[in-house]
Amino acid sequence: MSNKFKLIIGFLVIAVIFLLYNSMYVVSVKQQAVVFQFGNPVRVAKDAGLYFKTPFVQSVRMFDRRILEWDGDNSEIPVEGKKISVEAFARWRISDPQIFYTRVINESGAQTRLDDIINGVVRDEITGTNNLQLVIADTKTLGEGKGRTKLINDIRENVQIRLNESDIGVEFLDFQIKRINYTAKVRKTVFAEIRASQNKISKEYRSEGDKLALIIESEAYRRSKEIK
Q: What does the buried/exposed string (b/e) look like for 113-146 if buried means 16 or more CB atoms within 10 Å of the residue's CB?
């Protein structure tokens, strides 16, 4: 076998390996893939395994199939004439990677869309109640179907409705409120009102005590004169 023939064989082997390498892609259990042809999505691979594509014509983009986090910023919402700070978190996942790519492109785009939807629903629901007790108290205090549990369920349902309307290829899994508090400015006012109220009560107690002391002293003086 001549050196020239060996060179040709070697070149063909390398070319075949190169074609095979560019024809295969692997999807792990943590991923799901979208195959693109000339920049357009043509199919989806959701199950883990080895897949084939047309080399040089088709490309693959991976998307996470795990449960993803959404941690919202503090939202200041007016309730009963005072602003409260609400901090919440949610869990979601990519249900349709092809639609997901078409509508929001990546997780960063999805987070931005979720910010708009979730924060909007939270603000609407809490503002709609306009009752701080219904926001912070639970069913044990207010009874079945009321309070914070109902609020969270309503928010979860309405977020899913808006996501369905937006159709961004996302499934909404859970929503919870981490913390509710007055804003820093309002806390100062509330604490000042509490101190003023407590001072007023303590003054009333002291005044009643002084009156009672005078009555006791007068009665004691009267009895001592009677004894004399």
A: bbeebbbebbeebbeebeeeebbbbeeeeeeeee
